[in-house]
Amino acid sequence: MTKVVLITGASRGIGRATARLLGARGWSVGVNYANNEAAAHETAAEVGRAGGHARVIKGDVASEADVIGMFDAVIHAFGRIDALVNNAGIVAPGMPLADMDVARLQRMFDVNVLGAYLCAREAARRMSKDRGGEGGVIVNLSSAAARLGAPNEYVDYAGSKGAIDTMTLGLAKELGPQGIRVNAVRPGLIDTEIHASGGRPDRAAVLGSQTPLGRPGSADEVAEGIVWLLSDAASYVTGAVLDVAGGR
Ligand code: NAP
User: Fold this and answer.
1) How far apart are CA 229 and CA 89, in angstroms?
2) What span, in angstroms and rounded, lies between the C-alpha atoms of 233 and 20?
3) CB–CB of 164/115 below 8 Å?
4) At what angle do helices 64-78 and 115-127 cross, to 10 degrees?
């Protein structure tokens, strides 16, 4: 049977690379985006060229109504849901905490924490065996920042990803009996547009050269870890946090 996944933030970066790789494995993919509709349609086209099926789904993960609508859209399009990749996330310009205003902090935690929790909740409601589901898999996108802290740059983002690690550990225990595996991937410095959105387009290249492997990672390299955790090859893996960070 064709497996169905919702990937939040799949219009660009790690989400797009994951969608493409799952397409090549024959999955059907709900391609969520927030603003960049053209990029989401390009992801969907890449999934199709790779051999899968895709449906583009607009929605802000920080909105409960949008999140419920995203899951409804996946089930309407494909008839089921087997997996969630909780990938949508934001950074903001680097600065010390003392200079951060409340609007920035609010949005950081709304998208990166509340959004991830809402998406995991909807996945739990629809995949839990006690609620009529068939089980499934959740992969959450954390960050190496969760264990480094990102001082003077973005301690807000780092803390939001610490919450993702903890959510992963708790949900793995809560949802294991429901047939749902829950894991996280912690990317390091990955060459995507997220660094430009934080005001430093060259951040991955500059800091990546200082990592043990001497370079930034690619979105495709992170996608390989995510897809492995989604696959039956990882059938006894739950509550794990997989670093894909070049030794950083
Ligand atoms: P990216 O290239 O900036 O792409 C972000 C994606 O998230 C886009 O598809 C964007 O949609 C979507 N998005 C943003 N806010 C959203 C919202 N409120 N609702 C729904 N979608 C939203 O990011 P990336 O580098 O691929 O990062 C993906 C994940 O990996 C994030 O959770 C990030 O924190 C994590 N991560 C990345 C790195 C890295 O070095 N790149 C390192 C560690 C962790 P639009 O196109 O519509 O804007």
Assistant:
1) 19
2) 19
3) no
4) 40
Number of structural domains the chain divides into: 1
Q: Which of 33, 117, 154, 157 is catalytic?
A: 157
Tell me, yes or no, if the pTM score tops 0.90. yes
Separation of alpha carbons 170 and 121, rounded Å:
13
Residue whose CA is closest, atom 31 of ligand 1?
A: 89
Q: At a CB cut-off of 8 Å and minimum separation 6, what does 121 contact? A: none
Question: CA-to-CA distance for 10 and 19, rounded, in angstroms?
Answer: 7
**What pLDDT is stored for residue 1 in this prediction?**
87
* Residues forming beta bridges with residue 181, ordered by sequence position: 137
Give the distance from CA 120 to its chain's centroid. Answer: 11
Which residue in 175, 11, 193, 35 sits closest to 87, CA to CA? 11
Question: Can you list the residues of the chain whose pLDDT is less than 50?
Answer: none
The domain of 114 spans 4-244
Which of 119, 194, 207, 241 has the most ligand 1 atoms within 8 A of CB, as the residue to mutate? Answer: 194
The enclosing domain of 154 has a CATH number of 3.40.50.720
Angle at 84 between CA 83 and CA 87, to 5 degrees: 150
- Judge contact between 33 and 11, C-beta under 8 A: yes
User: What residue owns the CA closest to ligand 1's atom 9?
Assistant: 9
Closest ligand 1 atom to 35 CA: 47
CB-CB contact of 141 with 187 (8 Å): yes
